[in-house]
Amino acid sequence: VTDLVNGSFFVTEGSRAKHRTKMSRLTADGKMEVLIDRSTDDAYNDPGTPLSEKNKWGRETPKLLNGSQLVMRGTGASAKGDLPFLNTFDINTKETKQLWRCEEPYYETVTDVLDFDKMIIVTNKQSQTEQPNYYVRDLKNNSAKAITAFPDPQPGLRGITKQKITYKRKDGVDLAADLYLPKGYDAKKDGPLPVIMWAYPREFKSAADAAQLRGSKYTFTRVGYGSIVFWATQGYAIMDNTEFPIVGEGDKQPNDNFVDQLAWSAEAAIDKVAAMGVGDRNRVAVGGHSYGAFMTANLLAHTNLFKAGIARSGAYNRTLTPFGFQNEERTYWQAPEVYNAMSPFSHANKIKTPLLIIHGEADNNPGTFPIQSERLYNAVKGHGGTVRFVQLPFESHGYAAKENILHMLWEQNQWLNKFVKSPNSPYVK
Question: How far apart, in whole angstroms, are the C-alpha atoms of residue 332 and residue 368?
Answer without folding.
Answer: 17
